[in-house]
Amino acid sequence: MKIGITCYPTYGGSGAVATELGIALAHRGHEIHFITYQQPFRLPSFLPRIFFHEVDVGRYPLFEYPPYDLALAVRMHEVVLTHKLDILHVHYAIPHATSAWIAREMLEKTRPDIKVLTTLHGTDITIVGQDPSFHAITKFSIEKSNGLSAVSAYLKDETISAFGCAGCRIDVIPNFIDPAVYDRTRYAPDFRTQSAGGRKVLMHISNFRPVKRIKDVVGIYARVASEIPSVLVMVGDGPDRVVAEQEVRDLGLTDSVFFLGKLDAVAPLLASADLFLLPTNKESFGLSALEALATGVPVIGARAGGLPEVVRNGETGALCEPGDVEGMARAAISFLRDDDKWCAASELARADARERFSLNEVVARYETFYTRSLNG
Length: 376
Ligand code: GMT
What we know:
Blueprint (H helix, E strand, L loop, with lengths): L1 E5 L6 H15 L3 E6 L13 E5 L13 H16 L3 E5 L4 H11 L8 E6 L2 H4 L8 H10 L2 E4 L2 H11 L6 E3 L17 H7 L3 E6 L8 H12 L4 E6 L5 H10 L6 E5 L5 H4 L4 E4 L8 H8 L4 E4 L14 E4 L4 H13 L1 H19 L1 H17 L1
Parallel strand pairs: 1-2, 1-4, 2-3, 4-5, 5-6, 6-7, 8-9, 8-11, 9-10, 11-12, 12-13
Helix pairs in contact: 2-3, 8-12, 11-13
C-alpha cells in the first residue's frame, strides 16, 4: 500500500507513534509518505520506501495566523496525485482530519477512491476537541473519516460520549513498543552510575503541559526523598517546566532533581530508572509509561483515562486517584523498599508490555484497518 501519514512531527507521543508506525510499515514493504511541517523527530535521515514532504505555510503580512490547515490540505492533495497514494492516515484529529477531508474533497474527480483514516490520540478528543471553538469541526471531521481508530477503549468511549458519532465504527488499536529498543539489558545504566551516585532513580518524561500535573511529580518525589536516598530525572520541556523548577527550588531539592530537557531517544535513559511517575489527570494511553514498563520500570500513576489499560495496578505498578500525591508516594516507597516486590513488578512489566503491545502485532492490526477501509 502507499500511505500518507500526517502527525505533529516535533515532540509528543502521537508523533512518536505515527513515525514508528510509518517506519514499521516501510519495513513490511509499504511505501510511506510523511506529510508534515517538519521532519518527524523519530525519523532517521534515510530509510528505504520512506519519503518526507514538508508543508510550507509561507508568510504573508496579512496573515496574523497563517492558514496551516489549508497548506496541509494542498500538500496532501499534491502528494496523493503525484505518488498515487491509497490512504491518508492522520494522527490527532485537529486540524489533520479536517485538512485530509478538504484534500479528499479536492480529489473528488481525480481520485475518488482515496481513503482518509484518523487515529485519535488524546487531547484532540478530551480537551481541544471539546473546546467550543473546535467541537463542531472535530465532530464533522471525525464523522467524515473513512475509518477511525483510538489508542484506548477509554478514548473510544470518550469520543462517543463527547461527539455522538452516530454510526461511527472506532477500532481500538493501542500504542506499541519495539521490544528490541526498550530493553534494559542493551544499555549501560550511565545515569545511575555516573549521576545518581547509588541513589534510587525516579523518572518522568512528558511535554510538561498542565494536564501532566508536573507539581504532583515533584510532590511525590519530595515525599519519597524524605525516606529513601533518591534522585528525580525530568525529561522533556513545555509550559510547566518553570512551575516544576520553582517547586523544586521551594522544596530545597535542586541538588537531587535533574532537568534534562528534550531527548530524542529515551530507551537508554530508562534503563537507569527504578520507577516512572505519571500522575496525569487523564492520560488517554500513556506511551511514555508503556516505554518504561517495556524497559522493566514499574509505573506509579493516576487511576484515570486509559492508563489502567496499560499499567496493571498492584502488579506492574500502582495507580491512585488523580491528585493523591500521598498515596502515590506511599506506593513508590513500597516498591523501592522491597527488592523482591520491585523485581517481580519489573519482570512482569517487561513481559506484559511485550505480550500486549509489541510492534509486530499492533502494526498488523493497522494493516487490517487499512485493508478493510480500502475494501469497504
Ligand atoms: O493528546 C495529547 O495531549 C498529545 C498526545 C501527544 O502527541 O503526545 O498525547 C496523547 O497521545 C499519546 C500517543 O497516543 C498518548 O500516549 C497520550 O496518553 C495522549 N495524551 C493525553 O491523553 C494527555
